[in-house]
Amino acid sequence: SVVLYRSVEMFFHQITSTTEWPGGIYASPTLAGSRPGANIAVTWAAMMSFGRDGYVSATREVIRGARYLIAGLEKIEGVEVMGSPVISCVAWTSKIFNIYNMSSDLTKKGWNLAVLQFPAGIHIALTRRHMSPGVIDQLLSDIRESAAVQMLNPGAAASGAAAMYGMAAQIPDRSIVGDISKEFWRLYYSTKNNGESS
């Protein structure tokens, strides 16, 4: 199936754009957001493979890992755990340095973590894969190393993606951020090239 639009304005009605979500700026080219049917099928297959006992065992393992990560974060100078995590999502921030700079550091080290806004932070949704030997210890080591660097110059301005994300969180008129995210999807799907407008 193909959906064609007569105008860009019509296409914009399809896009889901959320700028106030604490998980960050979220924009998806579909009305349902990021819920493709393949994920539902994979979840069902995993449940059939694990069974109830396997799922409960894996859940316990992830919760133990989350508690281990929280205990490690609480020992790192300049880092604070956000809230009281109870299952698998753990978030942290800093009241001393720009946490988005740490996010950039961790990205350079190969971590794919999510940034938060309102308040600024970083979070990870732990999975069974993170429970492989040494993974959480490596994450804690990398966070500890980044925090030590940030503490040397806590007033350092954010740069790169961190600066852009922090700037977007500061725009008081959130509709501007929503418009920019819609424009991103318009350009992403554009079939025009060589500077032509679509």
Summarize the structure.
The chain is of the alpha+beta class.
Any key phrases for this structure?
198 residues, alpha+beta, four-stranded antiparallel beta sheet, two-stranded antiparallel ribbon, 6 strands
Verbal overview:
There is one protein chain. By secondary structure, this protein is of the alpha+beta class. Helix content is 49%, strand content 11%. It contains 6 helices and 6 strands. It has helices at 8-12, 37-73, 99-108, 135-152, 160-170, 174-189; strands at residues 16-18, 26-28, 80-81, 89-93, 114-116, 121-125. A 4-stranded antiparallel sheet has the order 3-4-6-5. It has a two-stranded antiparallel ribbon with strand order 1-2. A hairpin with a 4-residue loop joins strand 5 (114-116) and strand 6. The longest helix has 37 residues, at 37-73. The chain is flat, with a radius of gyration of 20 Å.
Question: What does the secondary structure layout of this molecule look like, with pairings?
Answer:
Elements: H1 8-12, E1 16-18, E2 26-28, H2 37-73, E3 80-81, E4 89-93, H3 99-108, E5 114-116, E6 121-125, H4 135-152, H5 160-170, H6 174-189
Antiparallel strand pairs: 1-2, 3-4, 4-6, 5-6
